[in-house]
Each structure stands twice: as structure tokens, then as C-alpha cells.
Amino acid sequence: MEINKTKQKRTNARWMTVVFLFIVTAINYGDRATLGIAGKAMSGELGFDAAAMGWVMSSFGIAYVIGQLPGGWLLDRFGSKRVYFFSILFWSIFTLLQGTVHFFIGAWALVMLFTFRFLMGLAEAPSFPGNSRITAAWFPAKERATAVAIFNSAQYFATVIFAPIMGWLTHEYGWQSVFFFMGGLGIFVSAITLFVIRNPKDHPLANQAEVDYIVEGGALVDMDQKKDNGKQEGPKLGYLWQLLTNRMLLGVYLGQYCINCLTFFFITWFPIYLATQRGMNIKEVGFAAAVPAICGFIGGISGGIISDFIMRKTNSLSIARKTPIILGMLFSMTMIMCNYVDSIGLVILFMSMAFFGKGVGALGWAVMADTAPKEMSGLAGGLFNMFGNASSIISPIIIGYIVAWTGRFEWALVFVAGHAFVAAFSYLVLVGPIKRMELKKKD
């Protein structure tokens, strides 16, 4: 008797995993955006000027950059699951503690806010390299940009969801409540990480058909398998020089630095811009800031879908990744038009266009998942994020001083838009062909 063998239907545990990354990243960016919403009320009560707030905002970036290489090394040494859990737990605790700085007097309030913000940045350092490692482990190349776009677009979704909530909390219960709410939410989600983040081969909801599919597509499913079995030590730091001297990666690093300048403007100074220069109250700011964020979310998802569509049609990583990045960055320069209009509606329109373009072009983590050496994807991602987030130190300070010196935001917008142009130039001219870097083995 002939037995008909039917092909096993593929499961979709990889998409459940990326949805969880989306949720974690939304909370991540919600925590970063707390000062953007609560900053005006906080600075008014505690007596901080624009320059002081710029330094406080940059404290996160200072720690975040310092923590990238150690965070990447920890991911490669201990795997994504454990490092991801402790990262979320501790950054949430330090977010919550920022709501207590009013108990300190005078300059000590500023010192403690800077300290808690610094520690939050240090704890968040492994988050995006962890996202990149998990995506590289779970997704074939032809789906990777969409997966990265999903979790990366959470930064816009965070504003859509959390900005109105934080604006309402600030208005009704005071600025302290913003930090208590976001910190408590993160602590709760950290516990869920222990159950959701798994190796593809060990995930109870992923069948063999799905594992085979992602392996055939180039997913690095064994990255954490070796760590869990205790068979591999962390990557050798001697290979770091190869990462630092590779032209393709240097172009990607510069591009990410510039893209993150736009990111940190939108999550830190943009709400303050609406409140101070455009005269909106805190509740209006929360809802107004959500409109460009929705456009950024749509742009972010669109960029990933477009990139993977081009990838399927051309089978060229370079064309598929570069096209949305270059066009998106050039389109985001429309924010300069805000300097020439008085209407709040037009300001929101131009910022929405800029945020949409930034979302389309924010594919740096997809490029990193495509290019990082398989032996040290965590460290490579940490280095990438270290360069990218140097702008989180520099740009808030420069914008703070521009606003303090001029009393307005016109030149600050020019400063941010200029970074979008440099990002497009970097991918167009400097990066060259996009491909996975092969390390030169040492004896």
C-alpha cells in the first residue's frame, strides 16, 4: 500500500518572537522619551535651564555608548536570553528611580537625575545588539529587513502610545508619575522575557519545517545554542581591529550616527520644541507628537517591506538595503520647512513627512544583521550601536546650546537635517557592496 507523505506545514514562531522584540523596544523608547514629555514640568519645578537639560539627556547616550562593547561581548559570551532579561530589568529600575529626584535639594537633584539616566543608558546597552542577534538567528535574509523594521518601528509606536499617556499622567498626577509608570511596566515585561526568548531549535512553538526554512535562508540558528551548552567562550577582542578598519562597516557606522541624530531629536527635543517655540500645552504636545510618530511607524514598516521586496526581485542586498535608506534620508530633510511656516498644522505636516522618511531609511540594523561576522555578531552590533549612539551624546548637547544661545530652534532643525544628508551620502558613496564580513583568522 502506498503511503502519501505530506509536507509538514511550517510554523511561525519567528514572527511571535519579533512581536515580543517590538513590545520590548517600544518600552525601551518610551523610557528614553520620558524626559521629552516630563522635561518641561520637571525643569520648571527643579530649576533646570535648557543647557542643563541637554546634559541630562546626553547622560543616557554617554552610558549607552560606553556599554556597547561590553554589552555585545556579554551577548556573545552568555547568549541573548539571560543578557536581555537583566538588561530590561535594570533599565526599568533606573527609569523608575528618576521619579524620585525631587527628594534631593538643589544641585543634587540634577546630579541624581544625571546618575539615574546614566545607569539607565548603561543597562539598555545590550538591547539593540540583542535584537539584531535574535533577528539574525530567527530570520532568513529575504525576511530580515521586514523583521528588523517591525522591532525598529516600535520607536515610533512608543511615541504614538506612550506620549499621550505620559502627557496625561504629567498633567493629572505630576511628572514623577511618568517614570513610575514606565519603570513598573518594564519590570513586568522583563519577567516575560525568560519564557519568550529561546533558540530556534529549542523553541516549543517552532517545528522542524520552520527551523529548516530559516537555516536554508541564512539564519544563524546556532549562535546561542553553543552558549547554552557551555561549549564556546566569548569572541576574541583581537578581531576588533578588523571591524574598525572595514570600509563597508565604517560607512554603515557613519550612516547610523547621522540617522540616530534624527531619532534623538524626535524623542527628546521635539516635544520641547512644540511646547516652547510653538506654545502648546503639555496635553496638546502629547497628542501632537503622536501624529509624526504614526507616520514614522508607517514609514518604518514600509521601508522593511520595500527592502525585502527589492531583495526578492533583484537578489541584491546592496540595492535592497541602500535604496530605502538613501531616499528616506533625503525625504526627512523636509523638516527644514518648519522654519518658514507659522501654522501648527503645517509644522506637524512637515515633521510627519520627515518622520516618515526617517522611518523608511532606518534600516541600519537590517544592514548589520546582513553584514556582521557570524563569530561575533554581538560585538559587531555593539560597535555599530556605539558609533551610532555617539550622536545621543553630542546632538542633545549641541541642540541645547543652539537653543540656549539663539532662544529658538531654527538652526537646530538645520543641524538635524544636515545629518540626514550625510547619512544618504555615506550609503551612496562610502559603504560599497553590502555583504557579510568574513574575519581573517589568526593563528
UniProtKB/TrEMBL annotation:
It is a multi-pass membrane protein. The chain crosses the membrane at residues 12-30, 50-71, 83-101, 146-169, 175-197, 257-275, 287-311, 323-341, 347-367, 379-405, 411-432. GO terms for molecular function: transmembrane transporter activity. Gene3D superfamilies: MFS general substrate transporter like domains. It is found in: Cell membrane. Its main location: membrane. GO terms for cellular component: plasma membrane. Residues 17-435 form the Major facilitator superfamily (MFS) profile domain. Keywords: Cell membrane, Membrane, Transmembrane, Transmembrane helix, Transport. PANTHER family: FI19708P1-RELATED (PTHR11662:SF399), SOLUTE CARRIER FAMILY 17 (PTHR11662). Belongs to the major facilitator superfamily. Phthalate permease family. This is MFS transporter.
